[in-house]
Amino acid sequence: MGILSAVESSLLRQFGKTKRLVAVIVKSQRDFFLNLEDLKANKPKDVALVAFTPEASKPKQSLAAQSCFDAIIHYDDSKTFGQKFRSFEDIEITALDPFVDQLVELVPKDKICLIHCEEDSISTMCRTRKRLGLTGAYPEHAHYMCRKNDVFEIAKKGGIPLPKTMEISFRDQKLVENYVQEITSEIPSFPLFRKPQMLMGLRGVGKIESKKDLEVWIKQRLDKNDDETYIIQEYATGTEFTVSTVLLQDGSWVPLVVKYVAFEWTHSYCLSTGKPVVSINEPFELAEQTLFPGIRKFASNVIETFKPMHPQVFCFQGFQRTKGKDDYVLNELAYRPAGERVNPLCYDACGVNQYTALILASIDPNYSPKPKSSWKRRNITGIWYPQREGNLAEHSKFPEPPEINGRIMGQWNVSVNEHMEKAKNMNQMICTLFLESQSDEDRNRDIEWIAKNWTPKVDKT
């Protein structure tokens, strides 16, 4: 059975006849683009832009976002959403291949551009492109950036600084002491950090404080017959940061922002303790002149070493080991935008929407990301509180003057009295706060007060 209705088929056939390009951006998650600033005004008129998105995203589509597309095609994701998987390579968007099979019957292949924008759609879309001979990234162009063991091998050969790193597989089912010996002979000091080879969003990650903790964790994996491959690292310290860039069709790249976690906390530390993830976004040019000297050279080395296929939005995450110094280690790559959760902060910081940049870079060979003349920077800080085990006692009043100088815009993601388990990834947040400040000094004072004095009230069960 086909995915497309008769009306949709007719529309796509018409696009194929009248447009230079038919670009399809595929959504696997059940949200939709919050905003696509500057896309509608800058989309080339000879391009048809189509969104292929789950039915469940309909209630979340704003009129402004809808107006950016020439067509929005919805699909049933009931066989995809919520499926259990060990890695993102396992995920199949079951409606994708039937849809694209119909698409190539309606539109010439050389006019089709498939755009991926989420981690869990990269593999399936690369396979589809390759199967049908469509332009864009194939598995061999992307998988090495998603597999953490490949990332570290390539970075090591390219001379990019890394935490001490090794991989370990439980498929061999060795004795606990054999695994411990293998790990500690390679990385003798604690704490360690563990993460699955092919998952993102902090799924399956954790800090290993001691040899005893390592033994307990290995025994748990063996008892569960876990045959996954894990990456084991020395525990990186310092400031956790992410750099977002746009890879353009002419082979050049443009940096957008440096996002970093305040207080030298990390995402994993905040998940494990319940402390807030305080995310600060700085325009790249400002960041390299102040807190992150030499970050452009480091970014250039990463891009030259990994050679990600253009066009795309490309991000990498690492640690600044010494505050304010050119002392960086690479941790992970993302061959897609940094995510809708932080995308508004990116726009407020640099005047460029990551998803707008991704689409325009894919469809306009002359595109270069820059803010429109009327744009003005807003100093917005994102603050996320991870779920803690227990019941949410109340929707407390968000911080306000005179305790803080800035203005808070907040939303609750959990209902009063709702039971929560401890957060395992960044999608499991009690509430989200956006702090608007008039200056960096005000921001720094306010986030320190908030981190010390305000937290959601949770009754332990």
TrEMBL record:
Alphabetically ordered keywords of this record: ATP-binding, Ligase, Nucleotide-binding
Single annotated GO MF: ligase activity
Domain ATP-grasp per the UniProt entry, residue ranges: 152-363
Keyword field contains Ligase: yes
Name this protein carries in UniProt: ATP-grasp domain-containing protein
